[in-house]
Automatic annotation (TrEMBL):
This is MIT domain-containing protein 1. GO terms for biological process: midbody abscission. It comes from Canis lupus dingo (dingo). InterPro entries: MIT_dom (IPR007330), MIT_dom_sf (IPR036181), MIT_domain_contain_protein1 (IPR052817), MITD1_C (IPR032341), MITD1_C_sf (IPR038113), MITD1_N (IPR045331). It is found in: Endosome membrane; Late endosome membrane; Midbody. Residues 8-86 form the MIT domain. CDD domains: MIT_1, MIT_C.
């Protein structure tokens, strides 16, 4: 029983820590992230409620859950209206040497089962590390909950010594995606400069450095070589928009 009580206490602490973060994000007008934290914190509190036997504690928990659900609903309605009006915009500043910004950490909250098509515009998918970055991004897209069937890449053609490397690398990625039931459509343009990623659920993400915002690891056996949440980043800005009617690039 004592062990069970400690587990309950740990769950409560975790829930309120997440909900405290939700309110901080809410106050800072970072509504999309706030909503994710509200939902996560409420789920954790619901688990605590289900394991609580004391009636007084149950009443208090239900009251707290109801209050947080009201806050989450206000944020959700605001975001829905912003999306409907095409006004949604959030900016994330990635500081020099910051960590915790893997593709999964940055994009996961915008990916769901409705995402079936993705448009990527990035002029620098040329060098080996850039090709690997694109491959990692594609790996994320084919995982659940996404049901991606088509990926469009618009990039520039390497006219130098790396032309063959770029072409063969992208063709290998295309073949590998095809083996997973995903079509990769490749287009090249000498005039492409902007970097943006669009999902057909309405989200559009613009990263100042495109997908190439990770620093080179110190060695092959240093932390961050495999786990990109531990990889230091170059300074850049991420702008996130929502448009109900996503247009093709």
């Amino acid at each position: 029983m004592a062990r069970y009580g400690k587990e309950q206490d740990a769950q409560s602490i975790a829930a309120f820590t997440v909900l405290k973060r939700a309110m901080e994000l809410d106050s800072g007008s970072r509504y999309q992230q706030a909503l994710v934290c509200y939902q996560e914190g409420i789920d954790l509190l619901m688990q605590v409620l289900r394991g609580t036997k004391d009636d007084t504690k149950k009443r208090n928990l239900r009251k707290q859950i109801s209050g947080y659900m009201d806050k989450a609903e206000i944020v959700k309605k605001y975001l829905d209206q912003e999306k409907e009006d095409g006004k949604y915009h959030m900016q994330i500043k990635i500081e020099e040497n910051a960590t915790g910004f893997s593709y999964e950490s940055l994009f996961q909250q915008y990916l769901n089962e409705t995402v079936t098509e993705v448009w990527i515009q990035d002029p620098y998918i040329r060098q080996i590390h850039q090709l690997y970055n694109f491959l990692r991004f594609c790996e994320m897209l084919i995982k659940k909950p996404c049901k991606v069937k088509t990926i469009h890449l618009l990039t520039s053609l390497d006219e130098g010594s790396g032309k063959q490397q770029q072409s063969s690398g992208l063709q290998e990625i295309k073949k590998s995606l095809q083996d997973h039931g995903v079509l990769l459509e490749l287009k090249y343009s000498s005039s492409v400069h902007d970097r943006e990623i669009r999902f057909n659920n309405g989200w559009m993400i613009k990263i100042g450095r495109g997908l190439d915002y990770f620093k080179k690891p110190q060695s092959r056996f240093s932390l961050g070589y495999c786990d990109f949440d531990l990889r230091p980043c170059h300074e850049t800005t991420v702008d996130i928009f929502h448009n109900k009617h996503t247009k093709k690039i």
